[in-house]
């Protein structure tokens, strides 16, 4: 039985909540440019985060070249600033490690507290260095050019670091002395949580943080401008989607191409499963490995190189054209890439060639998980190879197939951009333009960032609706769901 916790242990457990929150806030300071305590000059990029400041000296000092030559700024001050930023980053990393260790037993917690104290000391030394660099920068002979300024995130960061230090010191005093024979231990649920934590962070950074960009849809924004309420236009750009006839026509054509190409992909989504089944039925292991490797490698080739291969085969001077001319079938070479005919089928064929081997891997893994005793029993009952495939392998792969099918339905508006961008030319633009390529050209090519954001928002909302709709249908028909 577990011993009842002492009063000190109860207080210690409660103190760990603000401790972890403060560490989480310090991590936010690490990546949010507006909270960067290192930005002590207007010449430092306002989009530069503390993390970038601490790992890239060139990014931190990119605009100081002329100031250093004119001796408006001493390079030693910038080196102090860079070293201080690096120290703060290392201190935050130490605190993150301490926060993870706080989920363990007493011995692990005490070690974590020591690491946290060391990290906080390093952070505070870094903050002192930043303050010293600011004082040196403020004494410049040309303040109008150097623009010395006190970082708005300096004092909040200092307060957060001080809170972590105080709590870590308090924990050292509160925690009972660990037995010397006690090992470093942590409950399995916390180990699994810490293993999953990096993936949560990646999803938050690359999937949810970019959603802040949706605010551009409500402003009259151009690249390089700043967002302010005088540029707020509400739902103006949403109305532009239906008011402008040219835009409506372009989007209608784009949606037709997108849905057609995605539809072809969904209708042929069974092909990787069939390929995986036949691949696993090959008895010659060397030949099977060769085929699997040969069909998987194209997935790692960029679409630029794929187009280069297509150009070598189908261009005017390509292999196919030269062969037909030499055989007397054609009088002159023809560029088969400069044609808008059957573009949907062509793009599907290139995508299938590039991805079928890679897509089959998940089915191969699912096949390896099927109980081999089922095959042995079927063989005893007289079932042939194709009967075993049809009655054992295929039913065993159906759940995996339906999960991937639901994901394909949810991503029906996401064809990607690279493939269509490299194969696009003047003759096939109308038939190859998909939604992702349209958004790219509208935003990067024409600079219409608000309208591009609106299209991207609608695409995301429709994809989520399709996902839940497909999941509901699956639950209704099959009794199973993926959400």
Give structural notes:
With 483 residues, this protein is mainly alpha-helical. The protein contains 22 helices and no strands. The chain has helices at 7-31, 50-55, 57-60, 65-69, 75-101, 106-138, 143-146, 154-174, 188-208, 236-243, 245-267, 271-280, 285-296, 303-314, 319-326, 343-368, 372-380, 385-410, 418-423, 429-432, 435-445, 449-478. It is globular, with a radius of gyration of 30 Å. The two termini are 38 Å apart.
Helix content: 55-70%
Total number of strands: 0
Range of strand content:
under 5%
Output the number of helix runs: 22
- Uncertain parts: none
Order of helices and strands: HHHHHHHHHHHHHHHHHHHHHH
Molecular shape: globular
Mean pLDDT figure? 87
| Class based on secondary structure composition and strand pairing | mainly alpha
Rg estimate, integer Å: 30 Å
Please describe the biggest sheet, giving its number of strands, its sense, and whether it closes into a barrel.
Answer: none
The rounded distance between the terminal residues' Cα atoms is: 38 Å
Short description:
By secondary structure, this protein is mainly α. 69% of the residues lie in helices and 0% in strands.
How are the SSEs placed, and which strands pair?
Elements: H1 7-31, H2 50-55, H3 57-60, H4 65-69, H5 75-101, H6 106-138, H7 143-146, H8 154-174, H9 188-208, H10 236-243, H11 245-267, H12 271-280, H13 285-296, H14 303-314, H15 319-326, H16 343-368, H17 372-380, H18 385-410, H19 418-423, H20 429-432, H21 435-445, H22 449-478
Helix pairs in contact: 1-5, 1-8, 5-6, 6-8, 10-11, 10-22, 11-16, 12-16, 13-16, 16-18, 18-22, 21-22
């Amino acid at each position: 039985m577990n011993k009842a916790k002492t009063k000190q242990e109860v207080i210690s457990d409660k103190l760990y909540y603000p401790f972890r929150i403060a560490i989480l806030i310090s991590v936010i300071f690490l990546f949010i440019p507006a909270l960067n305590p290192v930005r002590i000059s207007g010449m430092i990029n306002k989009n530069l985060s503390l993390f970038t400041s601490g790992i890239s000296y060139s990014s931190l000092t990119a605009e100081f070249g002329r100031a250093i030559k004119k001796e408006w700024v001493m390079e030693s001050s910038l080196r102090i600033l860079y070293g201080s930023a690096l120290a703060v980053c290392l201190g935050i990393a130490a605190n993150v490690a301490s926060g993870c260790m706080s989920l363990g037993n007493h011995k692990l917690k005490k070690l974590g507290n020591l690491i946290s104290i060391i990290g906080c000391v390093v952070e505070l030394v870094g903050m002192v260095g930043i303050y010293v660099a600011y004082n040196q920068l403020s004494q410049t002979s040309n303040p109008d050019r150097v623009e010395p300024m006190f970082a708005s995130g300096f004092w909040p960061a200092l307060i957060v670091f001080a809170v972590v230090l105080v709590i870590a010191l308090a924990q050292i005093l509160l925690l009972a002395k660990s037995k010397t024979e006690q090992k470093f231990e942590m409950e399995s649920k916390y180990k699994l949580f810490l293993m999953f934590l990096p993936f949560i962070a990646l999803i938050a950074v690359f999937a949810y943080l970019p959603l802040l960009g949706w605010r551009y849809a409500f402003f009259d924004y151009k690249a390089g401008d700043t967002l302010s309420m005088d540029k707020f236009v509400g739902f103006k750009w949403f109305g532009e989607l239906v008011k402008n006839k040219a835009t409506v026509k372009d989007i209608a054509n784009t949606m037709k191409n997108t849905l057609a190409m995605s539809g072809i992909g969904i209708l042929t989504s069974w092909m990787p499963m069939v390929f995986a089944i036949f691949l696993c039925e090959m008895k010659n292991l060397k030949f099977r490995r060769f085929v699997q490797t040969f069909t998987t490698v194209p997935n790692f080739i960029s679409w630029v190189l794929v187009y280069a291969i297509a150009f070598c085969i189908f261009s005017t001077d390509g292999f196919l054209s030269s062969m037909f001319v030499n055989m007397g079938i054609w009088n002159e070479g023809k560029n088969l890439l400069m044609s808008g005919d059957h573009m949907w089928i062509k793009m599907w064929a290139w995508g299938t060639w590039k991805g079928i081997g890679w897509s089959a891997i998940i089915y191969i893994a699912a096949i390896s998980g099927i109980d081999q005793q089922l095959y042995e029993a079927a063989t005893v009952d007289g079932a042939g190879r194709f009967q075993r495939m049809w009655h054992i392998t295929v039913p065993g792969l159906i759940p995996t197939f339906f999960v991937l099918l639901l994901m394909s339905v949810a991503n029906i508006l996401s064809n990607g951009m690279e493939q269509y961008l490299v194969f696009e030319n003047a003759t096939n633009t109308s038939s190859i333009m998909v939604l992702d390529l349209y958004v790219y050209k509208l935003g990067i090519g024409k600079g219409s960032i608000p309208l591009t954001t609106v299209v991207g928002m609608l695409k995301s909302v429709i994809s989520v609706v399709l996902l839940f709709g497909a999941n509901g249908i699956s639950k209704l028909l099959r009794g199973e769901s993926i959400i």
